[in-house]
Amino acid sequence: MTTASLGEDFLEGGWAFCQSAAGQYADVDALEHQNALEWLPTKVPSTVAKALHALQRYDLDTPPSLQASDFWYFRQVSGLGAYVLRFDGLATVAEVYLDGRLIATSESMYVPVRVSVQLTGTHRLHLVFRSLSAYVHTLKPRRARWRVAMVADQSLRAVRTTLLGHIPSWCPPVHTVGPWQPITLLPLGTVDDVRMRATVDGCDGEVWLTLRCSMDMAGSVVSCGNSSATLLPTEVMGQYRAHLQLKDVSRWWPHGMGEQVLYEVALQARGTTQLLGRVGFRTVEVDRGSDTKGFALRVNGVAFFARGAVFTPVDLLHPGSTEGLAERLQLLVDMGANLIRVAGAFCYESQNLYTLCDALGLLVWQDLMLANFDYPLEDPAFLRQLEVEVEALLARVASSPSLVVLCGGSEIHQQAAMLGLPAARRQLPFFEHDLRALVARVAPGLAVVSNSPSGGDLPFSVREGVSHYFGVGAYERPLDDARRASPRFVTECLAFSNIPEPITLDSLGVAAVNHPKWKQGVPRDRNASWDFEDTRDHYLARVFGLDPAQLRRTDVAHYLAASRALVAYIIATTLTEWRRPASPTKGAVVFTAGDLRPGAGWGLIDANGEPKSAYYGFRQAAQPVALLLTDEGCDGVDIHLVNDSPHSRRYRLEVCALQNGSVVVARGESPLTVQGHGGHTVSATQILGAFMDLSYAYRFGTSGHDTVVVRAHMLDNDPASSNSDALQACYFPHGPYAPMSHVGVRAQAVLQNGTWWLELETDRVARFVHIDDRRFRADDNYFHLIPGAPRCVRLLPRIASSEECPQGVVTALNATDSVQYQGVN
């Protein structure tokens, strides 16, 4: 297929901007009479903060406020004839001038602005972003029923802007100001505002499409797969529609559950072919369970365990930026995620995110950008602005098969209930009725959730509906609370102060833990007397039996290593509890995907893009096909094999009990088949064939073993499989932490078919193995290495074009010895 340009002229370069006092210049005429203003070069899309940072005029450690000033942007535009100027996002209160004439205004960073213009040569285009601080003083919404502790400026509830930069305990005060989304000049005849929706029933699919064009498009042909249809005019001037029916379509599946089949939708008009976009055919529904209190997502009729992270902007200076987006999403897929949540306290992401998620099989839970506040939804103007925002969002993303949930926002119901408001006073009809009606009209078939969390007698009840669960974590409950709480679907959980890898700590420029600046990167709830490092230290004492205060004073290196291993263990253990086949929990979304500032933040991935130990802990329990172990007390240890893939898998299951981490004291094996899109649970005792106190619950004398190893060997005749491909999991009856001793780890870097691998062996069980390589990143980390079971870990070059060889060190949390390796071409 030859693809012609859509005719868009992206106005990226040639821009300059300047700063002025709030309201100093009422319009362009007043501005242009001043010669003292300093105009600085920039590009679009971007933000003021991003532009200043590029010019080394913006310090992230002490970011200046950008809310008290006006910012002016200028660029020349050229053309002859009729055009449309399209602004996809102006943050936040903005005016647009062409040759000094006001042609458009905006009061929402989320609603695109379109304006028709007639160009006769070269023209002057000015944008001004007015002071948000000055603007909010002009607003007089009704008095709020509740205040929000995490946001200092309560007036932001009446402004359609991001809360990023306004939550001091979460991230630096980096304010989003400027043209944060593309600006485009569309000439006469450009196809624009393409909206598509795909549905499937059995084997057949349908595609509904509308588009705009200022030229006559009637009779042009739209094609998709084995179907084509003629464009027909609608009752709206310049708008056309088409309806396609396809036979025998292939379904689109989430990552790990099947293929991500996408169909191109193309337009043949005026002798050219234009690619309008891609669609996927899938169904989505919410399963409330037999008691109607549950919440599970079903895609194509199949229920599954949804897991992932709350997605955070890759670049805080420019939220919604596409730079680094593909790499971030690929990391999450490699981690085993099949869902991300774009939460209401952040901002809407670019179209690129949905396009990438479509290709990767990452489902998107999309919140509206509403969080915690008592928004003035009784104000007709505000309500209409919000409805236009939702319609604009769905217009560009409803065709993405990755989008499965539209949620009314974050912690609004919870905030009202936690502050003691009775149910009658916290009713918000928009979320329960208006939003559902809007989605039914614009994007039918999309799952709608009123708010996150919601369900139950109180909206934050974890045993019903959608919950934010921090029992394990902020509330310092024991690890077994994850099972006892019985959450149904967790859209926020497992927030810890996650320590970055050594390569990132070296770049911070301060001593880890004991430097005052370290605490700037540790998240906390505003006005709380504790932070999330305190939470992590609580579990370091409770789970690992260590004294964190003593370690910080006497052995910072071991404190850091133990803290990293601890978080990996807690996340893997909790996800294992929730993912086992008998669990009522059908989803878990960790808070958060990435850090918003350097340091030990909530992110699974740090501010430099480096995965942290939490990432690897998640990875161990989240792969599409996984072997999981749980402590069942007096019933010993249960083995869970889960299989998201559509194909059945046959294994030889092997159970070993080891004494002193090396001597086999019991062993058994048995074949096991796991159905596609399913899971199977069996007792380890059943595999052994005789009683053994594997969990050391009965405590009859001294335990004869300290490690239970379970391995699942593929029985299918796969010539590519090897002993190192076996699934493996470990259980430690005396706890995951063991005193340090000599374990005898050996490592060798080997180059095979252009890929570097690290071959690892050990004499005794090595717990929480860590690979530290400044040139290459290990594909896996914080795993357990078993004697007699060599392991190969892929090494990924940090610089793709680099011809350097791997060079690093391998340690284990229970090992006094370490081993260095050096690859040789």
What's the total number of strands?
Answer: 42
> What would you call the shape?
globular
Which structural class matches the secondary elements?
Answer: alpha+beta
The low-confidence runs, each spanning 5 or more residues with pLDDT under 50, are 1-6, 718-723
| Fraction of residues in β-strands | 25-35%
- Radius of gyration (CA) equals 28 Å
**Terminal Cα span:** 42 Å
Average of per-residue pLDDT values? 94
Helix content: 10-25%
Tell me the major beta sheet: 8 strands, antiparallel
What count of helical segments does DSSP give?
15
Describe, in plain words, how this protein is organized in 3D.
18% of the residues lie in helices and 32% in strands. The chain is of the alpha+beta class and 825 residues long. Helix 6 links the parallel strand 22 (363-367) and strand 23 (403-407). Helix 6 packs parallel to helix 8. The protein starts with 8 loop residues before the first strand and ends with a strand.
